[in-house]
Amino acid sequence: MQRWIKLPDGRFIDANRIAYIGKTETFAHIDENGTDMGMAYSVNLGTGIERESQLTVIGTREEVLSVLRAVLGRGEAPPAA
Fold first, then answer.
1. DSSP string covering the chain, please?
2. Which of 15-28 are b and which e, b meaning 16 or more Cβ less than 10 Å from the residue's Cβ?
3. 42 close to 32: Cβ distance less than 8 angstroms
4. Hey, how many other C-beta atoms are within 10 angstroms of the C-beta on 35?
5. What is the pTM for the complete model shown?
6. In whole angstroms, what is the distance from residue 34 CA to residue 30 CA?
7. How far apart are CA 50 and CA 38, in angstroms?
8. pLDDT tens digits, 20-77
9. What is the pLDDT of residue 74?
């Protein structure tokens, strides 16, 4: 049975196909005009070993944690403290 999860950029992925989850990284998010957008988070998800089957999820802390909780089967993330 497929478990579709919506990613922060609007795409969907079947959580059952994810083979590995990489380390969560943080970086300074700057828009195309050089404006500081604050801290952004990213995590690599892979459905296989080949480079073509890897994707990077980028978003706010809450968005990335929500995706990871959904992949791990824990539902929605609780509100940030």
1. ---EEE-TTS-EEEGGG--EE---EEEEEE-TT--EEEEEEEEEEESSSSGGGEEEEEE-HHHHHHHHHHHTT--SPPPP-
2. beebeeeeeeeeee
3. no
4. 8
5. 0.70
6. 6
7. 32
8. 899 999 998 888 888 888 899 999 999 877 777 889 998 889 999 999 998 888 655 4
9. 67
